[in-house]
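WP5 quarterly update. Target: FAD-binding domain-containing protein. Source organism: Endocarpon pusillum. Length: 418 aa.
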Amino acid sequence: MAKQLPEENISEQHDVVIVGGGPVGLFLGLNLAQKGLDTVVLEAEADINQSPRALMYFPIVLNEFEKFGILDEVVRAGYKNQEGLCFRTTASGSNKVLASIPPGKASQGSIDYGVQLGQPRLAEILRRHAQKYPSFSLQYNTRFVGLEEEHDAVRLETSTPDGKTKYFSARFVVGCDGASSPVRKALGIPFEGYTWHDWRFLAINLRYDFTKYGYPAANHVLDPEDWAVIVRASNVEEGLWRIATGISPDIPVEEIEKHIPAKLERLLPGPRPLQYELVAVNPYWAHERVAKTYRSGRVILCGDAAHVNNPLTALGLTTGLVDVAVLSRLLPQAFTPQHASSWPRLLDKYSTLRRNDFVNQVQKLCLDGKLRLHSTDPKVVAAREDFFNMLNKNPGFGDFVAGTMVEKLPDDLDPSLA
Ligand SMILES: Cc1cc2nc3c(=O)[nH]c(=O)nc-3n(C[C@H](O)[C@H](O)[C@H](O)COP(=O)(O)OP(=O)(O)OC[C@H]3O[C@@H](n4cnc5c(N)ncnc54)[C@H](O)[C@@H]3O)c2cc1C
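Structure tokens (predicted):
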């Protein structure tokens, strides 16, 4: 729970303190600093986390990047997917395309493509652009330890690796500190849901020419054992691909690496012996969890601190970046005289809108997406066959599914609806 901090020693005061310098914290910092709020991002580690994690960004997020003039850079650094998504069987099985979702059709002037780019590269772009604003600052090696809410501010305690304590004060604090969010824990907000124990997930980055064997930029491979998502993870020049797949949870983590060649033998198309460059392997557990509320007093949760899902539908980071887009339309209004006493409604609106979206849409899409890949449950198999039949027989259905991916957020969110 929130702790009692000493009165003295507030060394820095800001409009907003963001805890966590991952992509969500950096994008929020960029948004708020651009709107003139004095914003500091506090990050526990010494730099951006470089491990292979999220990499897919849908038009709803790209539209937001465009507003900050960073879209071109993101597109150049990554792969512009105008090919849609392909469902197929494994290379070692029948190696057959089952169905495809075509690229989305957006209204005139809107973005109708996705971008595939490693999360660390995106974070670097966001950081560089945020640092152009004088009202933005970023402090690495600064770990959030605790907080205390006062009448009109929140006080925070942080620590540095050399054991120094530093205190901050802000009108509002946003926890963008990831799935195990110390901010969420300090507030005592439950993180409801479950962890998947049927598979240990693997994020594998490698260089291999899938294109040569007819694979488009995004593929869902269906198989009870060797299910996978195979996608481009960089621009063509860098030639990086990602395989998101699973391995038995009974295999100890230190033995995973020796199972990778056999896994790739079953998943990679093309002649043998296979010639690939393995770049990174990241094993992890996936979860479906959501915070009971995204706000407590003057403290707000955003990104993985508020919600986590399995990565197979690529909605984890996208959902966090949409949280930022909504919060940065509402939070600056809390600083205006008009909302001097009604700011809680603005923040409740953020919490309700974003939590409902996660629970009613994102969670369902993620669950369906995972089961579609590997489940042998007759109900799931029947639903999957219906889905593929619709895609194959009715082009209008494919366009409809693709159309749901090119939606755009409205510029104004009316606080009176809170
Ligand atoms: C292996 C793996 C693969 C994934 N693959 C995908 C994918 O394919 N597609 C997808 O959409 N999503 C994927 N995800 C999820 C995606 O990475 C997250 O949704 C994304 O990182 C969320 O960003 P964030 O900024 O909210 O949190 P994070 O990226 O976790 O950033 C949180 C930051 O807070 C910092 N922090 C933590 N505690 C403190 C503290 N006490 N004080 C200060 N700072 C602190 C951390 O150091 C970190 O930098 C994957 C995740 C993992 C782990």
